[in-house]
Design a protein that fits this description.
By secondary structure, the chain is mainly alpha-helical. The chain is built from seven helices and five strands; from the N terminus they run αααβαβαβαβαβ. The chain is globular.
Length: 131
């Protein structure tokens, strides 16, 4: 998709060579399909959403990732990197994770489905909202 976009559109998302084809250009302007970042235009920093907020990490997960605070995104990415690096996925069914001793302390199960991992990890994460 990026290669098509580079060939068809200029930096202001106007179709190159087709100035008379304005309905698409108006549509793109209306729904703000621009390449510029809104936060850089206004000068304000974007507030982190629920997954990007720094959270306090509780005991078994704290020893696993070796940090006191982290975002939920970081915790999940770290766990998946650990699983991939140590080949903890079941070779016959990749959806199943067979944790080693270090990961088993955090997940508290012998075999885990890949969709259960966020729920099992995030119960060790305490979020403190700052309004």
């Amino acid at each position: 998709m990026n290669s098509i976009r580079v060939k068809l559109f200029n930096s202001k998302n106007k179709i190159i060579g087709y100035e008379s084809f304005s309905p698409l250009n108006r549509f793109m302007a209306k729904y703000n399909y621009g390449t510029t970042d809104k936060s850089s235009e206004s000068g304000k920093e974007k507030k982190p959403n629920g997954l990007q907020i720094e959270c306090e990490i509780k005991s078994p997960l704290k020893e696993f990732i070796n940090t006191d605070t982290a975002s939920r995104v970081f915790v999940l990415k770290y766990a998946w990197k650990y699983i991939k690096d140590n080949n903890l996925q079941n070779p016959d069914m990749k959806r199943k994770i067979i944790p080693d001793n270090k990961l088993k302390q955090v997940l508290e199960k012998d075999e885990v489905d890949m969709l259960e991992i966020p729920k099992l990890l995030f119960k060790h994460v305490v979020s403190h909202r700052k309004e």
